[in-house]
Amino acid sequence: MRETLVLNASFEPLSTVTLNRAVVLVLQDKAVVEQSHPGLRVRAAAVDIPVPRVIRLCRYVRVPFRRQAPWSRRGVLIRDQHRCAYCGRRATTVDHVVPRAQGGRDGWLNTVASCAEDNHRKADRTPEEAGMPLLRQPFIPSPADAMLLAMTSGDRSELPDWLAAGAAPAA
Ligand SMILES: [Zn+2]
């Protein structure tokens, strides 16, 4: 469910994110609400902000002109928010959905974040063979998606190394 449009600081549309991510970006002071749903508020604990329809990043980010973010293990963990694709707990490893032993390759659509236990348990089997269904399907993040995911992943650095390396230096 992607319901909030994200604009760059220059007002250029970047991507869409879930309401949850939009709220995180606003609460982390990385974005401001440009348009909200009239009369609706997000209320939880100490949080009370309008439900954003459009947010705008406070700092201009340069998105590398690429159709696809390059695959990396770190990128998979960020894409999956360090959540295990099999049990939902914290993931520290990357699992090949179709195992390498069966010809599975590195790539966004064949890799998911996994906890060490599930990675070990699944071993050289497919999810079907192991009886371990995926909680969500892997997807290919666009460079803008990858950047927004990294910004809300709780990482210290706003840009992951593998994306920052492809970004042009700020003018
Ligand atoms: Zn797990």
From TrEMBL:
It comes from the Bacteria. InterPro entries: HNH (IPR002711), HNH_nuc (IPR003615), NA-targeting_endonuclease (IPR052892). One of its GO terms (molecular function) is nucleic acid binding. Pfam families: HNH (PF01844). Residues 71-120 form the HNH nuclease domain. Gene3D superfamilies: 1.10.30.50. Coiled coil: none annotated. PANTHER family: OS07G0170200 PROTEIN, SLL1193 PROTEIN. This is HNH nuclease domain-containing protein.
